[in-house]
Amino acid sequence: MSHRTSSFPLSSVRLLASDFKKAQDVDVRYLLSLDPERLFAPFRREAGLPTAAPSYGGWEAEGLDGHIGGHYLSACAQLFAATGDPILRERLGRALDILAECQAAAGSGYLGGVPGGRKLGRELAAGNVDADLFALNGRWVPLYNLHKTFAGLLDAHTYAGAGPALPMLTALADWWLGISAALDDEAFEKILHTEFGGLNDTFAALAEITGREEYLREARRFSHRAILDPLAAGRDELNGLHANTQIPKIVGYARLAAATGDASFTAASDFFWDTVTGSRSVSIGGNSVREHFHPSRDFTPMVTDEQGPETCNTYNMLKLAKLRFERTGDPAAIDFYERATYNHILSSQHPEHGGFAYFTPMRPHHYRVYSKAQQSMWCCVGSGLENHARYGELIYSHTPDDLLVNLYVPAELDWAERGVRVRLETDFPRSDTATLHVTAAAPTEFTLRLRRPVWAVGMEADVDGQPLGAASPSGVSPEFAVRRIWEGTTVVTVRLAAEVKAEALPDGSPWVSFSYGPVVLASRGGSDGVPGFEAPDERMGHVASGPKLPLAQTPVVTAPNPADAVVLLDRKTLTAELTAALDGDPLSIGLEPFAGIHGERYTVYWPTGTSDAERTAALRRLDELAASAGDVIDSVTAGEQQPESDHHFAGESTRAGGSDGLHWRNATGWFSYTLASQEDCTAVLRVRFRRTEGAGHTAHELRLNGGPLGEPLRSVRDGGTEMQDFTVPAAEGTAKLTFSVHALPGAATGDLLSVELLRQG
Fold first, then answer.
1. Which residues does residue 687 pair with via DSSP β-bridges, in sequence order?
2. How far, CA to CA in Å, does 508 sit from each of 279, 336, 504, 516?
3. Is residue 476 helix, strand or coil?
4. For residue 563, what is the DSSP state?
5. pLDDT in tens, 640-665
6. Label partner for 596 (CA 20 to 30 A): which of 37, 104, 280, 743?
7. Contact in structure between 439 and 491 (CB atoms under 8 Å)
8. Is the model's pTM score more than 0.90?
9. CA-based Rg of the chain, rounded to a whole angstrom?
10. Measured between alpha carbons, how far apart are the two ends of the chain, in Å?
11. What is the pLDDT of residues 471-516, one digit of tens each?
12. What's the CA gap between 439 and 431, in Å, rounded?
């Protein structure tokens, strides 16, 4: 289609019985279990008001205070629009009342839970900018945090029509404009070195609502040239970058492309889209390892690490897909949206207690942990509250003369402008048939466009029992169009044929996953060795850090065409049987939809090879390499946001860096982390630095609990790194250990890659 399409408001679509409706209902219960007084306690504190209840803990008490409150506004508004539940509107109203008190008390338009947020504004306006990747003037991503408040107020206005939200938002935006006006372009670009969420997106949307040009100018100012320019020039420089720092920026570029027609925004968003969906995503629709874009030429970390695709990334990629489809009508945008929704998003919420998953490991035989409503306050909890509210946003869309059915999800549409209601009934994907009841209040002419998914090997339709024939072969026609004058109720039946398909990793490495239609299939693996599936209330609790089972225990798919190794057993349950081999023995393995597996280990990706013995030997070498790293008690990867934040990072005159999947931190001052030791063990501290041309190891001093570490037990140079082991003094073996790196006078430290505390003996 050559012209733009428009999405229907969430309030025009109601989900019918399905897994998606169940997930939405569970989401509502989780949301309503949260206490608004606790969520917005940081806002009261920052406004100088007494709090009615203590703030939540976790990230909400460690520097990201108030960020879940912003998501809560968005989720209340979106779920109210999607369900019409008056309790949600009531909760939203209560939250806005609290925020109105806070904004009035602040007196400047400021509104947020950022620790020292108003002071930060004064510092920036005075030209005091100290920006690191995840810290701005000593605060943990404060503009990212503030963006959640911006977005929450915008959503309260857009989805729920909440009267106070827009004036509160414009007052907050004007507060920021006062700060921004004092900064020249160089200082502003420096600020953008720190993660700032999607402030460009929000300012662009606010400009569209208000017509105020200064908001559009500010959206442009948030473009972050260091990211925009390479993408617009068609250069993939994403390796090593924190993925979800970048994706919201590109969502903003896509919105600015539509708002301004600026070719650089269009080129950047299109190239990013092509790159991430084409060469950086796995079959469930997710991307990144340890929150970062790994080198696209090597997906080994994806199948070895327990910190696989992050849910927040896919949350934002779905926003990008929606904007892309609305602008271009690109059917591939819906294909991606469908795959990511049916697999990553639907699976990211526990179907009973509603907890949200942060990481979804692609490592064979691993598992996920889920949030607890009153304890876990991660970013993926905030975005998770919204994810299951928005299932209805792209089931249907329209142009002035077309109604598009994009997703075969049971839902009812009220197309009020045309006096048309559509009820889509289906048990898809457990059934190949979808039935649409199109009811027109008065005769009206339009074209009904039925999407043909990329996975469909056949598609047929009939109107009131009259066959329309078969659509063009797969890949030729992206839709099935029915143009007529619609009157009364017309029944349109669609049948979609699918087959089991195999999908290799984007780097072409010998790993494969299986799908039937849009549904990724996986195997169950029990719960042996898993310490628990609900996240503990502790640092890095969002990581499934229990024992990893050996990769060499994974059966190998030896069929020349891997898809031939799978036989569908039951179309209704989408259960299948995979034939593979291990140690020369053939095995039959049950597969089922990945999104339905919770509370146990699972396998999505399977090793492939003509010889299972050779492939298993290669996997055993990976296991041995991992085992050689030692028994790790605690560790920090320098320059990665969560490991640093969760290890109480502190420092002065320090910067994080990264390149081609490697991350590091250096300083002309100092920086430190706090590691947890264990009782009754002898420990070694292992420190790794990046070797750089002309850099000397004497540029810094290493300290433990304030005292110098002294001479290392051993020092090993391996390629571009240098590893040093130090004895941990016995008297400190049971204490929390503060490790720090200090630059010598007039010098800079080396580039620290990691520090690990290892059990010895």
1. 724, 755
2. 10, 20, 6, 21
3. coil
4. G
5. 988 898 898 999 999 998 887 789 99
6. 280
7. no
8. yes
9. 27
10. 67
11. 554 444 578 899 999 999 999 999 999 999 999 999 999 999 999 9
12. 24
